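Revision sheet: structure tokens.
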Amino acid sequence: VSFAAARAEGIIIHDARGRDVTIGNTSRIVSIGGAITEILYALGLQDKIVGIDSTSLYPPKALGEKPNVGYMRQLSAEGVLGLNPQLILAIEGSGPKETLEVIEAAKIPFVSFPETYTEQGLIDKIKLVAHAMDADARGACLAAAVSSDLAELKKLRDGVKQPARVMFVMSFLNGRAMVAGHKTAANEIIKLAGGVNAVDGFDGYKPVNDEAIVAARPDVILTMQRGREQLEAEAVFANPSFALTPAAAKKSFVAMDGLYLLGFGPRTAAAARDLALSLYPGLNEKAATWKPAALSVDCHK
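Predicted:
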């Protein structure tokens, strides 16, 4: 098949839901998921975006200049279809199912992108978004910048002699801490930054009891900044179980922007570097001279 013929038939993407989705027109897109929106802007394709979801917080101007269709897991079919999209690009886990069924019935191509919290998963996500938009060269450009950042990050990690035990606390529910186990973005970003997850023995996010917190012996508490509901160091360390941890003894508490820290978009290596600097102040000299390529590369051509 010649390239022209293949283009006329559309691009076919095998998506996270195991479906082959044929994409014809990419002129009006709704982008669901902070990382997807961030990638589209990094590829210079923002003019094709007609709507985004409420997790699309970067670049900051996105929410100012694009209609917001709501939270990715609580989309309304009317809100999405009202924007007259030709294509919907969404991160895995977007929904609910009823909304997706209405969108499918409307014959709007809907591509679900796998949410794999690994270095390779990040590179694949960038290339797949670019491919869906028939912008493979731009995707290769951004993927190369991110790969170079990840390689620099590895050099930084190689300088870590004593990995810090990090506990990611999502929130408190009825006095119990909701923490990140394995197979989470938090677990992977901790590893990328040269730390180890102090929590072991389960996947996903779960509330844990006081004994488990004390037994985990975290050196550092990590959380995400989110406006008024933000966890503060004083409140966490005032909790009797957290008060007994090495983290409390050193008052080691790090709060970072949620999408930056956990979004697994183009800035992930930069976020991991910033976390590494918080965990290991001694690394400063090396890291201060490294400017992440993904933050400055121009992949708009």
